């Protein structure tokens, strides 16, 4: 009894220490970025047009939102419906399903630069799109697709089978059961995967350097080239001439990530609350 109690205290202490170390690390990074970047934030950084004098981040900020929305519109429906098929319609013991799951898990761990090279060879070179927002968005959509599929699959698996059995017992069909009973119950987990995908899109650099380019402008359409905030930060830092502006850009990037995640969490909360009330 005493041994079990001591083990519980030991494990709990490890959890608390790990949580404190994690929070201190995150807080230290944020404080360092804020101290270095906030004093150098000025209105020139938000000028509509980029020049070598103002090194404006406004075009990159607009491109970041455009890239995020475009990539999610491509990846989210395909990933969610793929997860639904794997859990609700495909034979769970099928070898092909197991191969698909192993493949998605493998793709989740592939370095992003590999996706960048793939996007460059397929979209930029073979299809002839050149460095464009469309090539970057498609490459990002392919990169986040395994994350959305896996999160959707695990969320659907967590829904008790009694939900499905009760729906079938009341005379509902397969399609109605999936979309009216199972999917709303699994939606919090699915939206969590989408939120993680948003963070990965906003912070991605390697993929976009090879596909969307580093032009500091707002393109007229998706076939135009443009840089995102993370690429803009990389470009400023690698040049070595605007390190102060790079720190200021880092502050804006952090705020953008927090804003997008907060908005996504708010929408997810409202969506799930509306489903429960309905």
Order of helices and strands: HHHHHHHHHH
At CATH level 3, the topology of the largest domain is MetI-like fold
- General form: globular
**Name given to the CATH architecture of the largest domain:** Orthogonal Bundle
Name the CATH superfamily assignment of the largest domain: MetI-like
Helix content: over 70%
Q: Could you tell me the strand content as a percent range?
A: under 5%
How many strand units? 0
CATH class of the largest domain: Mainly Alpha
Poorly predicted sequence stretches spanning 5 or more consecutive residues: none
Distance between the termini: 49 Å
Whole-number total of structural domains: 2
Structural class: mainly alpha
- If you compute it from the alpha carbons, what radius of gyration comes out, rounded to the nearest whole angstrom? 22 Å
Oligomer: single chain
Please state the average pLDDT score: 88
What profile does the largest beta sheet have? none
The number of helices is 10
